Amino acid sequence: MGRYVALDGNSATAEAMRQINPDVVAAYPITPQTSIVQTFSEFVADGLVDTEFITVESEHSAMSACIGASAAGGRVMTATSSAGLAFMWEVVYVAASTRLPIVMPVVNRALSAPINIHCDHSDSMGARDAGWIQLFSENAQEAYDNTIQAVQIAEREEVRLPVMVMSDGFITSHAVERVEIEEDEAVKRFIGPFRPTYPLLDIDNPVTYGPLDFYDFYMEHKRQQAEAIERAKEAVIEVGEEFGKTFGRPYGLLEGYKLDDAEVAVVVLSSTAGTARGVVDDLRGRGIKAGLLKPRCFRPFPSQEIVASLRDKAVVGVMDRSDSFGALGGPLFMEICAAFQAHGVRTKVVDYIFGLGGRDTTPDQIESVFRDLLQIAETGEIERLVNWLGVREGKQEVVTAA
Amino acid sequence: MVDLEAGWREIPEGGLIVEAGNAVEYITGGWRAQCPVLDLEKCTHCLFCWIHCPDCSILVEETKMKGFDLDHCKGCGICAQACPVEAITMVTE
Fold first, then answer.
1. Which ipTM score applies to this complex?
2. Does the beta carbon of B3 lie under 8 angstroms from any beta carbon of chain A?
């Protein structure tokens, strides 16, 4: 049996890392991820884990050390946020392309400038094409559960890809919640022993990692990567089911809330889904058929599953906690639009950019989104495709050109 | 040597080379513009050429300089520069 404790998201993640007991952790502190590696370094100092903890001089070095240790044959983890992830950039791709099952909690934080330490999803959304599996966590419990599952998913023979486990900076990372921490032995049994493929330390079977790869083979290696992350979808489902059987909390690619008979639905990642759930309850109490879809897995993108759960809705409002400047809209919005188009779904979709740099997103704001959706459902007219939620428009009257 | 026609399902994942020492099967001699030529009468078998060759292309038998592995020699000319008795000259191919 697990035990219920009061922990913030970062402490819960550090607990998961203690139980995973990786061979190597190479990490650099960055707000708001810092307390993960700080807490974990205490576990190392106290002898509670067998981990070789490498204190590096930067995130680029952290990921580089992780790549080396993973290729050597170790179970490897790190953690980062924001500028730290941006600084890792080059080697984030190398980890995925070299098919190394590294697990990295990413505590979401805005990117500079202006400098800001609070939550939005620009950091991990920027890395969405890097080839990593991306899981988003709503709360401390999910951050803990996803970190444990990530190890299994990453190390699956048919996958062998690194996994990022996201949680919202400060909102999840630093807020104390009730978290069920499972028994050490049970977690150990769940993740099982690490079986490296082609470890560099197997000196009887020498291999080469990272050779030059030109036009004659590079494309075949990319094709393999595309296949592996596609296969990861099934692995995420299977591991989520297995986790449910073992610990009583099942997980899938996405989670719907009062979605089946909903007329209008909001799609949102991570902690805001918790606020949105309350708004849905409130609206349902007033007879409005509102629903919520919370994707858990963003990469691989569960397009078929999202289409299946939203295709019969009148209007869908997507909430993006990051913009993709100059694009049609935020990243989640664009993926959903593309999925709808590809599957011939004509449901209307509108985008709401929200919560940038830690801007609070209140139930009132989410309710205003639902009200917009209801109006669009009634009139069939979309006034603005991409909206900024909770931004000050100022007192000046806006003059629009005719 | 890996099959150059191999499809993406048939090659090791992650760009790994899982067969040790297969660089010997990669014939790089075709890159050469200048070819080393040995004058055995001048050669003192000091093996400076063997020490300096970046491609392990100096053939040695029982501590004696025997010639060049022209399948892998890229014609860089370092052996000719290193030779203290000018026993190696570079000739345009």
1. 0.88
2. no
